[in-house]
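lol forgot to send this yesterday, sorry. struct tokens for the thing we talked abt
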């Protein structure tokens, strides 16, 4: 029987722990605060940010949401970040990516105070992850680690394949999987759009993390029997539904679940974990800044 890993249930448990920590901090006079900044009118980005704000409310974190016109100048966004960096009630800052093309995303990420960088995207925090001395682990890869741990999937000595090399998921995921630490110690291969014979690599893997952003690209015939499949993809594809689209992962669920021992669904797999780990990082940020 294939295990369908329930990300909602695991995320709920993590959020309950985080909520307890938030309450303790509030009792000491520090209510954790998370500022989200959206400079986009992309529907998916709007949805993600509102889910993050709702999670704050449910976790005892003070959510502050700010929107900027997508046509505003880069300087306007950088000034907004400076203001949030200086605000002692704000412990975490998240600028929803992507930002418009006329804004240099690197400059944006570098402007955020590394102590408030709850995404873990600032070069200082990226470097700390690579060095095995993480302050804020990036939310999605950290969520995948927690999800594997909760599903009793041991990574120690296993062959892991990460499909996708993004700064947000693929690269940090590979870094966490190779760490000399629980949830790491995996022999890790990173595949991407230029990889020759992807199926050969994924078929040799005990654990496949699909994070390429290509709908249903990983099919059952690309997997080995008994593997664990984690689907990070969230792709909107046109469909005859009320909204005109449906969400599908990077994995073709039906064929993959025939092969895999354990698999995450989309939605209800990695997505809720990302948000839970954002709440975790925000409470950690508040704790670091108050201590
Ligand atoms: N866009 C897609 N995923 C993320 C994320 O985890 N953080 C931010 N800031 N933007 C994103």
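and heres what i got for the seq, position by position
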């Amino acid at each position: 029987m294939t295990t369908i890993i329930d990300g909602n249930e695991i995320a709920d448990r993590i959020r309950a722990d985080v909520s307890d920590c938030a309450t303790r901090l509030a009792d000491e006079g520090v209510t954790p605060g998370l500022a989200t900044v959206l400079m986009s009118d992309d529907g998916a980005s709007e949805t993600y940010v509102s889910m993050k704000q709702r999670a704050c409310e449910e976790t005892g974190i003070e959510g502050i949401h700010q929107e900027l016109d997508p046509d505003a100048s880069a300087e306007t966004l950088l000034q907004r970040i400076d203001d949030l960096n200086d605000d002692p009630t704000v412990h975490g800052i998240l600028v929803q990516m992507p930002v418009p093309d006329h804004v240099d995303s690197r400059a944006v990420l570098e402007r955020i105070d590394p102590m408030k960088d709850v995404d873990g995207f600032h070069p200082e925090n990226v470097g700390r992850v690579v060095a095995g001395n993480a302050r804020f682990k990036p939310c999605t890869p950290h969520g995948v680690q927690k999800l594997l741990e909760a599903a009793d999937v041991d990574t120690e000595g296993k062959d892991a394949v990460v499909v996708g090399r993004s700064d947000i998921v693929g690269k940090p995921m590979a870094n966490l999987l190779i760490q000399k630490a629980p949830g790491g110690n995996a022999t890790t291969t990173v595949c991407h759009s230029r990889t020759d014979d992807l199926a050969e690599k994924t078929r040799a893997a005990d654990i496949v993390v699909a994070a390429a952003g290509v709908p249903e690209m990983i099919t059952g015939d690309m997997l080995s029997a008994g593997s664990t499949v984690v689907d990070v993809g969230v792709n909107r594809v046109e469909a005859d539904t009320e909204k005109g689209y449906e969400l599908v992962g990077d994995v073709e669920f039906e064929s993959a679940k025939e092969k895999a021992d354990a698999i995450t669904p989309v939605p209800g797999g990695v997505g809720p974990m990302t948000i839970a780990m954002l709440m975790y990082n925000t409470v950690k940020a508040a704790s670091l800044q108050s201590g």
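The mean pLDDT is 98. anyway ping me if u want another try
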